[in-house]
Amino acid sequence: xxxxxxxxxxxxxxxxxxxxxxxxxxxxxxxxxxxxxxxxxxxxxxxxxxxxxxxxxxxxxxxxxxxxxxxxxxxxxxxxxxxxxxxxxxxxxxxxxxxxxxxxxxxxxxxxxxxxxxxxxxxxxxxxxxxxx
Amino acid sequence: xxxxxxxxxxxxxxxxxxxxxxxxxxxxxxxxxxxxxxxxxxxxxxxxxxxxxxxxxxxxxxxxxxxxxxxxxxxxxxxxxxxxxxxxxxxxxxxxxxx
Lengths: 133, 99
Known about the structure:
Chain A has a single domain (10-129), classed as Diaminopimelate Epimerase, Chain A, domain 1, CATH 3.10.310. Helix content of chain A is 53%, strand content 16%. Chain A has helices at 10-16, 21-38, 53-62, 90-93, 96-111, 115-129; strands at 2-3, 41-46, 70-76, 81-86. In chain A, helix 2 packs parallel to helix 6 and helix 5 (96-111) runs antiparallel to helix 6. The longest helix of chain A is centred in the N-terminal third of the chain and has 18 residues, at 21-38. Helix content of chain B is 29%, strand content 10%. The N and C termini of chain B lie far apart (61 Å).
């Protein structure tokens, strides 16, 4: 797993990032597994989103290398908002209803304070639904 | 038991215990726990991750390998790529939720 952009140093990330090393390892594994079994590009953003949050998340999807085949999970803990955005081709394999079900699982975990667990669960659920048969 | 021993057991030892517990609690404050609590301010650096396939089959990420960014507006990776613009024209899907 690596960041989409590189702006701050590793030390700063380690000090100020929201996840522990163990959580990062779980997240990394979930991202790689999701990518491998679906051949889509899964991406996770955790931080504030400009209003309107949906439009901001859609713009962020465009900044990924293959937006049409990508899935962005954007989580804003301060706003308590979760946005799952699927690209045009990814959408054919991952319906909006399936995304909504994953979103409900994720927000249930977030309400209990488990950010990393909710994201990992959501990634697994989305990847299973979009899995190549 | 002499007066000095009484002072040691009844005053000095409890005081040392209280100071040690306080120091441990102060060292492990809310930022050190890295735990998100709904309703509390979340002031961590924004992070945005994708899978790193170059890392190899047996590799795994560590905290040092990850970095954050300041805001979505600073991202420029594929904004002008060949597929840019094709996904925003009503073709994106997904879901929104709140908690």
